């Protein structure tokens, strides 16, 4: 019986690694809304109606919807980065010999890819609001720098500077949102959302 415990860990690590590979490959350059809930469907319908309408409030509705989507995507990115990257890193979960290190690294790798994808989606959302778009423009290179950090985390190659980069970029996005009237609050994504990217 003692020999099954390490095998179980290996199986979990392999399955989660495959999930990371599949999710990052499937997501490619496409940006999607997190969740896929009825609320998102309603927001999409409202955006379509606002774009086709000729009323003077159509532009204001588009900007409001852009901010709502930005807040949702940026909040999920911030929640994932803190919950599965920053917090475990500060607790020493990524250090060699730490209990549960492999599982923590796999989750951090998933969270890194998820965070990058949600930040890219938030950047796209921000384009619907001129003030928000202008506030996020200086952060685009910082967001792009996160692209490969998920893989480094998963392999256990991330350094203090890499984790600090996540904190810095998330902090910048939160500050930009607050300055543009779209304050961002951390929202920890579900395991399903995390694996879908």
Radius of gyration: 18 Å
**Helix count?**
9
Q: Mind describing the biggest β-sheet?
A: none
| Beta-strand fraction estimate | under 5%
Helix and strand pattern: HHHHHHHHH
- Please estimate the helix content: over 70%
What is the mean pLDDT?
A: 79
Tell me the structural class.
Answer: mainly alpha
Outline type: elongated
Terminal-residue CA separation: 36 Å
Low-confidence stretches: 24-43, 49-54
Q: How many beta strands in the DSSP annotation?
A: 0
Give an overview in words.
By secondary structure, this protein is mainly alpha-helical. The chain has helices at 4-27, 38-52, 58-90, 101-126, 130-136, 140-144, 149-155, 160-179, 191-196. Helix 1 (4-27) runs parallel beside helix 4 (101-126) and helix 3 (58-90) runs antiparallel to helix 8 (160-179). Residues 24-43 and 49-54 have low confidence and may be disordered.
């Amino acid at each position: 019986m003692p020999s099954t415990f390490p095998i179980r860990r290996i199986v979990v690590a392999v399955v989660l690694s495959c999930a990371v590979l599949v999710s990052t490959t499937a997501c490619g350059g496409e940006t999607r809304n997190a969740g896929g809930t009825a609320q998102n469907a309603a927001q999409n319908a409202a955006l379509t109606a606002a774009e086709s309408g000729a009323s003077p409030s159509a532009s204001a509705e588009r900007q409001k919807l852009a901010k709502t989507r930005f807040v949702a995507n940026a909040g999920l990115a911030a929640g994932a980065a803190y919950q599965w990257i920053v917090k475990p890193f500060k607790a020493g979960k990524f250090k060699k010999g730490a209990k549960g290190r492999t599982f923590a690294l796999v989750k951090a790798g998933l969270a890194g890819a998820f965070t990058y994808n949600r930040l890219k989606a938030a950047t796209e959302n921000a384009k619907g609001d001129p003030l928000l778009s202008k506030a996020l423009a200086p952060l685009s290179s910082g967001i792009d720098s996160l692209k490969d950090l998920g893989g480094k985390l998963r392999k256990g190659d991330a350094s203090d500077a890499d984790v600090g980069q996540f904190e810095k970029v998330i902090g910048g996005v939160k500050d930009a949102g607050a300055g543009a009237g779209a304050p961002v609050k951390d929202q920890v994504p579900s395991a399903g959302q995390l694996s879908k990217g």
